[in-house]
Amino acid sequence: MKKLIALIVLALTFNFATQAQSGMAKDANVVTVKLEQTKGEFTQKNVTLKEGTYVFNVTNNQAGTDVGFVLVPEGKDASNPENHIKEAYVTQVVKEGTTESSNVVTLSKGTYKYFCPLNKTPQYTLVVK
Predict the structure, then answer these.
(1) CA neighbor of 94 nearest in space, from 62, 67, 76, 127
(2) Can you give the pTM of this predicted structure?
(3) Burial classification of residue 6, based on how many CB atoms lie within 10 Å of its CB (0-12 exposed, 13-18 middle, 19 or more buried)
(4) DSSP 3-state of 6
């Protein structure tokens, strides 16, 4: 009986370790894109990325208001939230002097528009090659 319990514990430990390593491997492929907003604009006017998986970090550098981040495929109506890539939203509004992150977003080749409706920025271009 003790051998059986020991084997079950060993199998569970191995399974947990394998899952943890596969999770780390996924995280290793996620690239962080750092964006900064000041009053009425992003400081990064155009962004070019490779096809892949990303997290967007958005910093509020004295924008004078809380800020956010919206990403929309080009050609879609950016004013319609149904067209927004929801995973790209920051997980909470970005207060002055802080940085917040989006969820993980996988982007395929194409052109996208990004902007902040809270800070009333123009729409900027993000290209994925």
Answers:
(1) 67
(2) 0.79
(3) exposed
(4) helix
